[in-house]
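Practice problem: predict the structure.
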Amino acid sequence: MKPLDDHAPPAQPAAPIAAGGEAGWRSLQWWPTVVAIAFAAFVALDLFRGEEHGGELASIVAASGLVYLAAAALERPRFAWPVFIGSVVVITAAKLGLVGMDATWILLGLAALFLGYGLLRGAARSADGLPLQTIAMVGFGAVAVVALYLNEVAGAYLVAAGLFAHAAWDVYHHRANKVVARSLAEFCCVLDVLLAAAIVVTTVGA
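Answer:
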């Protein structure tokens, strides 16, 4: 029999390493929330500086409806992310004065194009797909348009209400795992809530 080596180091268990790796992986799953917090802070900066009022964020309400409508029209949940990025480009271009109209109107025009394309390709088969998202787009689009014509305070509160309502829409679709990617639903929910709260805080304090 081979004698035991009293000086040999004890074997190190592998469980803590595996557990640590699993914890690290789980932390990565929260990236949509982290990105949403950073993005909301960036967008809300002008609100707290007093350079912008909440009603001027009406285009974000329209964009929120657009990403769902586009994903439903294409029947590709992950396509919501490219549409969101495109919406940011449109809103930024309008803010910089590169286009001659409010971004809300451009986003509504894009929504109409996606709706038409979805109808042509037969994406209206599922009631909770294109038909439901069209109704939602009409509602959120109406909120965005009306907010453009109200005074600063009323417009700001209407936009905040629209964002809070869309956050609930995000929660529903995140749980159901329908229409858009769950990562987009999580991101959009956090963004909507934080921006709505920032609008309320800055409007009350104005």
